[in-house]
Write a structure and sequence with these properties.
mainly alpha, Serine Threonine Protein Phosphatase 5, Tetratricopeptide repeat
């Protein structure tokens, strides 16, 4: 009697296993025919059933079905809404990811690879979705929240061998560390990214600034050299490198950088005014004043409104303002160092200094017309108005700066 009962149990188990296998096949058929709610229901059941939950095919199909739901949520809202699935999209993506990884894990344990290629391809799509979602969080300024999301994307990108997303997600993690004052972690990741030849400009600039702050000038220059090598068309890095060489007294290498920038300017049309300003800034800092003025004016002739400038520092008006401002300060310093009996020379230098301060005013005021809250420009004008005893203008600028500080 016991033997008969056992046989009945085996038969029942056979029916159950077959039913669950059918659910896997039905789930796949439903997916192909866009009956995704049914597909999800069947595959969820198969993933929990003892007879099918250890089959890599089950998890492979689960990954596919959930990935399909993510895909149509982005591309076919009407079809997605028809499914009446209330699970949030990020959760669907995460379920797809876990299912694919489970399928891969089971196959690795069994030393098979029947679904490996298809699983990787599906995961590649999910990684792109996950990166875009994580980047939106990062780009929205939610840096702390973005870090674990981006780290997860980086790990997945390594599995699918997507170098671009791997590098971009790590770059965002590094910048998020920096933004949340986790400087040591940021610097470590910056260095790894530089070694891996990242093409993200911000990584080189931030690591350069960190090394410079630590007074590691050789390392700072080497970072910029790596950036110029890995992103040869990046004129901003080349401009920083020329400035770093000038600051360290290496005029020969600075001249090579400036020559390369001039060659760039001769061969481009887009962003040419900005490149000319970068060249002018380097020439100005190297005390090549006449050539610097010429370059600034070339930039202004191409773009009088300086619309291409990506920051105040690459605005020709600001550059000329700084040039004349610094010139005025140098002249005043020279006059202050004269002995008391050299009154005539003192007066002459004072007059020349004030004349240079006056020349800088219209350029700074043009910058202020477009960027009324630019602190550097406001501070420069405050000094100038004070030196030239322009009382009303001085009061106006001082009040503006005070209002910005109290905001």
């Amino acid at each position: 009697m016991k033997r008969i009962i056992f046989l009945v149990a085996l038969i029942a188990f056979g029916f159950s296993a077959t039913a669950q296998t059918m659910k896997v096949q039905s789930a796949y058929a439903d997916m192909k025919n866009n009956r995704l709610a049914n597909a999800k229901k069947n595959i969820d059941a198969a993933c929990e059933n003892e007879s099918t939950k250890n089959d890599p095919k089950t998890w492979h199909y689960a990954g596919l079905i959930y990935a399909k739901l993510v895909e149509i949520s982005q591309t076919d809202a009407k079809l997605f809404n028809k499914q009446k699935i209330e699970t949030p999209i990020p959760e669907l993506a995460e379920t797809s990811t876990k299912a694919i990884l489970k399928s891969i894990e089971i196959e690795k344990a069994a030393n098979t690879s029947e679904y490996m290629g298809a699983n990787i391809n599906t995961l590649k799509y999910i990684v792109i979705y996950q990166f875009n979602r994580s980047f939106d969080v990062f780009n929205g300024g939610k840096y702390t929240e973005s870090i674990p999301l981006l780290e997860n994307v980086s790990n997945l990108a390594q599995i699918v061998k997507d170098r671009e997303i791997y590098m971009k997600s790590n770059a965002c993690v590094a910048l998020a560390y920096d933004a949340t004052n986790q400087k040591d972690k940021a610097i470590e990741l910056y260095r790894n990214l530089v070694k891996e030849k990242t093409t993200e400009e911000a990584i080189y600039i931030n690591l350069y600034l960190a090394n410079k702050k630590a007074k590691e000038n050789d390392k700072a220059i080497n970072v910029l050299k790596a950036g110029v090598k890995n992103i040869p068309s990046n004129y901003k890095l080349l401009g920083l490198l020329s400035g770093a060489y000038i600051e360290n007294g290496n005029k020969e290498e600075a001249s090579k950088c400036i020559a390369t920038l001039k060659s760039m300017a001769d061969t481009i049309s887009q962003n040419k005014p900005t490149v000319l300003v970068i060249i002018a800034n380097s020439l100005r800092d190297a005390n090549n004043v006449d050539d610097a003025i010429s370059m600034y004016n070339q930039s202004l002739s191409l773009d009088p409104n300086q619309n291409e400038a990506f920051s105040t520092l690459t605005n020709a008006n600001y550059g000329l303002g700084v040039l004349y401002f610094n010139w005025a300060v140098d002249l005043k310093d020279q006059s202050d160092k004269l002995p008391i009996e050299a009154s005539e020379a003192y007066d002459k230098l004072q007059v020349e200094s004030k004349a240079k301060f006056s020349l800088s005013i219209p350029y700074f005021e043009k910058v202020l017309a477009k960027k009324p809250n630019d602190i550097a420009t406001l501070n420069a004008l405050k000094v100038i108005y004070s030196r030239l005893e322009m009382t009303e203008k001085y009061k106006e600028i001082s009040a503006k700066l005070e209002s910005l500080r109290t905001k």
